[in-house]
Amino acid sequence: MERPRHQGMAKNTCMRWRLPLVCLLWEVAMIVLFGVFVRFGPEADAHWEEEKHQMNLTSDIENDFYFRYPSFQDVHVMIFVGFGFLMTFLKRYGFGAVGFNFLLAAFGIQWALLMQGWFHSFQNGKILIGVENLINADFCVGSVCVAFGAILGKTSPIQLLVMTLFQVTLFAVNEYILLNLLHVKDAGGSMTIHTFGAYFGLTVTRVLYRPNLEQSKDKQGSVYHSDLFAMIGTLYLWMYWPSFNSAISEHGDAQHRAAINTYCSLAACVLTTMAFSSMLQKKGKLDMVSREPRALEQCFVSLQHTPGPLSKRDGAREEPSREQGNKAPLPWLCTTFLHQGRSLPEAILTISILCRFIKAFDFTGSYKTRTPSVQGGFQAAGIFVSLLMAFAGGALVGAILKLPIWGDAADENCFEDDIYWEVPEDEESDVYHMHNPDKPASP
Amino acid sequence: MERPRHQGMAKNTCMRWRLPLVCLLWEVAMIVLFGVFVRFGPEADAHWEEEKHQMNLTSDIENDFYFRYPSFQDVHVMIFVGFGFLMTFLKRYGFGAVGFNFLLAAFGIQWALLMQGWFHSFQNGKILIGVENLINADFCVGSVCVAFGAILGKTSPIQLLVMTLFQVTLFAVNEYILLNLLHVKDAGGSMTIHTFGAYFGLTVTRVLYRPNLEQSKDKQGSVYHSDLFAMIGTLYLWMYWPSFNSAISEHGDAQHRAAINTYCSLAACVLTTMAFSSMLQKKGKLDMVSREPRALEQCFVSLQHTPGPLSKRDGAREEPSREQGNKAPLPWLCTTFLHQGRSLPEAILTISILCRFIKAFDFTGSYKTRTPSVQGGFQAAGIFVSLLMAFAGGALVGAILKLPIWGDAADENCFEDDIYWEVPEDEESDVYHMHNPDKPASP
Amino acid sequence: MERPRHQGMAKNTCMRWRLPLVCLLWEVAMIVLFGVFVRFGPEADAHWEEEKHQMNLTSDIENDFYFRYPSFQDVHVMIFVGFGFLMTFLKRYGFGAVGFNFLLAAFGIQWALLMQGWFHSFQNGKILIGVENLINADFCVGSVCVAFGAILGKTSPIQLLVMTLFQVTLFAVNEYILLNLLHVKDAGGSMTIHTFGAYFGLTVTRVLYRPNLEQSKDKQGSVYHSDLFAMIGTLYLWMYWPSFNSAISEHGDAQHRAAINTYCSLAACVLTTMAFSSMLQKKGKLDMVSREPRALEQCFVSLQHTPGPLSKRDGAREEPSREQGNKAPLPWLCTTFLHQGRSLPEAILTISILCRFIKAFDFTGSYKTRTPSVQGGFQAAGIFVSLLMAFAGGALVGAILKLPIWGDAADENCFEDDIYWEVPEDEESDVYHMHNPDKPASP
């Protein structure tokens, strides 16, 4: 383990025993924990027939499955294809982008099912799961994917798994505090998913900052077809956002409204984003995908801040969305105009959060005994807690990830797949080496 | 504005102020118009509970949302991934294909919601929207995507937005005349979407014809991976066609039947298309994607002429499809055999339209007071109006697009992304320039 | 027909008349057979209104269409995009992978609708089809896609169509014997789809084995972007597996449970697969996609052996899954640990099949008069019949495919698209030929 740390010397990035050991141990733990704790919820198990009669339902079609499963599959595609391919824009990091996203998300959803289950679906010592739990697990993992985008290319798969473990845990704790203790209204997962996810990711990035990476700017670029692969991810995230926002809304009009609302908002986002993209580029050209991780962050946050429905969670049910039912579906002005600029400073992000905050006062809320101003105080507390968890948690996790035991790559090997992946020695790579003659052909 | 027009001189293609200005102004207009006119429809707003009782519905699952949302998302994927990637076959125009399709479709659906809303969903001064409106907006934009295919590589983004504005408007007017005034039966959007869309596109292409483009044949070719990207688009258009055809059919058996019908017809199309593709090629090889815009047109038109259900619209409800309920689901013979040949002259297209026309006589129709022959006359009038709108509208829009203010590229820059997009300077492009030494590496 | 067979001489691979003839003749046959036999089922035809009342259903939403259509579309994507792109990993065989998969699947689903219809949906001389038939046809074709993976790159399109014709036929016969005669329980299509499909494919591969192909190892490799295309296929197969397993389960809790079960199992599979992938590679690197057809086979079989629901078919309805309703959803241990190793010998496959076999004893079954041990005997008979059909059928079909009339490629042309496809002469291929100077540029 006493390996030299100074730059230029190869770090030990071999995963042969470390990765399998971590994966298999964790999988054994998962199996034990699932065996002990997890059971099918009432609408997924054999007692559904009795349950159905108790709930005065007349048909199998009223099983929650049919209300949510199509949206669930769309969200699933967003997490694995959307986020995975979004990050394939890097020249030689496509395998890492798709593959590590796959690995961490698959691990994360198992852990999220348990963590969120203990906090929200725990009855008589068992976690009862149904399709809504699957969606919430995917949501939780979505915040990890956002953070992954911020440290893309600089971490080993084990670091990503460790980060996922901690981030999912903190996410579930934060969610519990906000929804169940503070009874905060969290429209569209604004605080629990987006504020927490983005600032957690940014904090981890800051801690893991490597000053020498500025040298290897060329590897941080894209090639023509890698940008097209990234467009697959972008489009799926965009197209399925109505499903993301409506997936856990209440049955009936609330889901319907959430989908329409998001559809309209997103269409407007495209035009404003293109406008700013062209305006901010020196020659007025459009930029295919944002290339800096920061920009990615902002892009998500802004997209996700589109005025969505209130999410249906334990502590914050969504009667307000009924009250505002007949309003125009398009108060997107503030959202899109302010947020879409790729290089606008984060200050604007904060403004937008404040905007949401002010907007939150409008909701007189389901927690009926609170006056609007009291509820406003609780909303502020919710933001404060989310930011605290993000900064403190991010700093802690960043420090853990800096330990020299996780097998991360040396600076000169960042953004390269062949550290962790079998990469075919192909024509393209021959061409690549033709133009980089000082780099040996086989790693 | 007095810039030289003769070939060889660079045109001013800089979008820096024009594109943002157009996008932002239109977006402001959209926001105002949506704020004034658009409201949630009865099944999407808070009155749904009352509505539900009035309609004698017992469950939230009977909200139209659950009948149509899965199909809607499939149609959405067809428009953005299907059409977007279908056109990525060109060597160096993948960004334009996906990106401009994204831009025009996102703008188009907003304008289509308004236009179709004013004509079909207008009550008490408000447009009431629900999931069916979203699907119809996507359909309308589909006809713009078809036209985009016909002028691919030769237009600036502003021209595309202008074309979208006009085409959506004409589409909605044509639809109104046919369905609400003539009470024409428009099976599968045959006249409103496909006949109108294809001939409008062809007319615009003819007006924008550039004789010198024959020289740059090489840039109009594909490369190996660009053809694979195009296959993503092709497959999604093919796979989700049953959703396209069933999305706005009536609830229950009609949607069921439309999906089955399309599934079977499409499977047959693949074999006949492959057969003709092999037969018409000199060495009997198969062609991955049709490379000429014309062929694309035809392909769509033929695919879309598959015997689908009658679309459910105001003026033309679809009882006939119930009457023909127990027939075999596969009268595809004429459709597939005639239409799939890539280079068959357009005459065949017209024949096929006549076929449909004759078929239309079978439908005694919901407009019950009409005799079949009277209805046949109205059908003929419908085709006539659609063609008239397509030719006259296409000529007008083509003339507008020829104005020298839209920033379109010079002939020698057509089919190249780097006019309007930041293109990475990558290995591939180095290789590209290696083989094109007379072209400077940086634009 | 007396053409020389020794290596080095070009075989006649021209498809110009053979392929169109086969396609068009078969399509004519399909049209006649569909015209004679196929009709819409009760829930898809105009009698649905009466039917609905007879079945005491109150709403159109209780049409089977709404229970299954979203899952059907997911399965459809798995067959065409999932399997199609999964096999694009080969350097120069992407067109063949996607295109031939498209061709054979489109033909296969038509023939499967007929074959499965005659065996399972035949009433009064007519095949009555609904959405469940479409799903079953896609399932049946899935087993052909698995077999296609095993002979990828070595066959002509006509051979693939012939294989599809026979395999679909044998599949339907095997399914009929197992489900309707032996009343075997076939959890998740374990025997009918996976055991039969995999061993049929392996047998055909063995018969078509070409010893000289070892020389052209280089063409059997991948390039960087071809591996990324393959990841699209992998992800779609993985993401939509819950739909695959729940698509034809019983309404309500059974579908719900199947989806949850598969979701959890699949997440675990990712970690164990990554672990073994890293462990078995000399430098501990991860492998993007399995490159040997054998590994592909195993991968499918193992994935598909995930403890899914019992499929709902005539002979084997699924009360057992209700009995085990409240169990933990995750008995995946055996499945994932044993199966995921890429190079583990097939022996393990057999063990796993034995595991399932033993597990099958637990199910006391719907066929209520049988004791568990008698049912166990029938289960064993089911496996025996499936293997027999696979080996004997595979040998027969392999022998037929060896006839010198199908236009397959010579050894030195295997794994190359330009035998059967118009391939663009692009930069990449120039580069390719730069590195293969002995091969002429134009075929």
UniProtKB/TrEMBL annotation, chains A, B, C:
The chain crosses the membrane at residues 21-40, 65-86, 93-114, 134-153, 160-179, 191-209, 221-240, 260-280, 378-401. Keywords: Ammonia transport, Cell membrane, Glycoprotein, Membrane, Transmembrane, Transmembrane helix, Transport. One of its GO terms (cellular component) is apical plasma membrane. Residues 311-325 have a biased composition (Basic and acidic residues). One of its GO terms (molecular function) is ammonium channel activity. Residues 63-289 form the Ammonium transporter AmtB-like domain. Signal peptide: none annotated. SUPFAM superfamilies: Ammonium transporter. The keyword Transport applies. GO terms for biological process: ammonium homeostasis. It is a multi-pass membrane protein. It is found in: Cell membrane. InterPro entries: Ammonium/urea_transptr, NH4_transpt_AmtB-like_dom, RhesusRHD. The keyword Protein biosynthesis does not apply. Residues 305-327 are annotated as: Disordered. PANTHER family: AMMONIUM TRANSPORTER, AMMONIUM TRANSPORTER RH TYPE C. Belongs to the ammonium transporter (TC 2.A.49) family. Rh subfamily. Homotrimer. This is Rh family C glycoprotein.
